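[audit] Reproducing an earlier prediction to check determinism. Same input, same settings, fresh worker. If the tokens differ from the archived copy the diff job will pick it up downstream; this log only records the rerun itself.
[audit] input (423 residues):
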Amino acid sequence: MTIKRQQLILVIIAALGYFVDIYDLVLFNVVKKASLEALQLTGEQNEITLFNWQMTGMLLGGILWGILGDKKGRLSVLFGSILLYSLANIANAFIRPGDLTTYAVVRMIAGIGLAGELGAGITLVVETMSKESRGVGTMIIVSFGALGAVFAFFISQHGTALAGFINTHLSIQLVDWQTAYIVGGLLGVALLLLRIGTIESEMFKGLEKQTVSKGNFFSLFSNKEIFLKYLKCILIGLPIWYIVGVLISLSVGITKQLGIEGAVTGTAIMYSYIGLSVGDLISGLLSQLWKSRKKVVVTYLFILAVLVIIYLFPFNKSLSFFYFMCFMLGAGTGFWALFVTIASEQFGTNIRSTVTNTVPNFVRGSVVLITLLYKSLETIFPSEKGKIYSALIVGAICLTLSLISVLSIQETFSKELNYVEEC
């Protein structure tokens, strides 16, 4: 399998971009408490407000960048999204005390930027690499990118020392959470310098000469067959953000009901994303070996169902086993690259960017509905076990919907992608 130099550059840039993307996405959850305390904005409601603004930005950004990708090109979206979330990161470090409004607006702008990088990168890679090797490219992007969460945890842990170094040598007075945001912003800006040598998708260039409708988001809802295909692409990814949004992000509450003491959310996130990186690497290799996307996703869903049961009803209640299960759950969600690739390969060139950008961001946005359902069901059961049984039911729903969707969708391994969608 030969990968041309320009294709390799694209994969590297997309992987680094997703690394910074995940860094920022996770960093907000890691440093939000410290930043809100420093800004005199403490309170759970303020945390929820900022999260909702960021997710709103991601949902809007998914649509915006997707349409632009089909109308103006994949490459412009890739670098435009990186520039936007990098500048938002830097701006985040200089929010004034008491100014929740500006913090929320900046998080929404960051969310808009974060929404575009993965979809643009995946679209470029699947359209530029050969149909036999494109799965390897997407595997590398997500496997490496997921490690951005580990880097975010590392920076947050050593932010004080880093801030001290900057204060001493640059005479700029920063604290740890400000330094963490600036690091993310500077990483993105540095990444933009690598754009020399990158190439636009030849499929998109060919599309420019045609009069077919491009980037028509509403066309995805105008035809029953197209809409159902689009909906299935979204539902396939639900278990991933059920794991991230409930079992990992809300793990402290669950562990208390399990009788596990000392769990830290940041550490749980770190181990889960290490697992996600490993899982994506394995799923990508299996997809190449089995020459199938669907078989791998189905296998992962069954493994994930077993892991969820062990996590919620553990035979070992030590803290070390809990973190091991966070790693395993992360590995079980390691079909994120395949899920986004499947979505990208389902549709024609004239709507591919729109689909590839909106699908993962709608799945990310679904975490709001998933957590609302989780919180609602929690009250039905006895208080000492409410979180456990609620998480089990929500997990069963997400896994079932995902399984039905992947079984009924078209296999796309080695599918020819140079065609337009008749919308």
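[audit] rerun output stored. Observation attached for the diff report: The mean pLDDT is 89.
[audit] end
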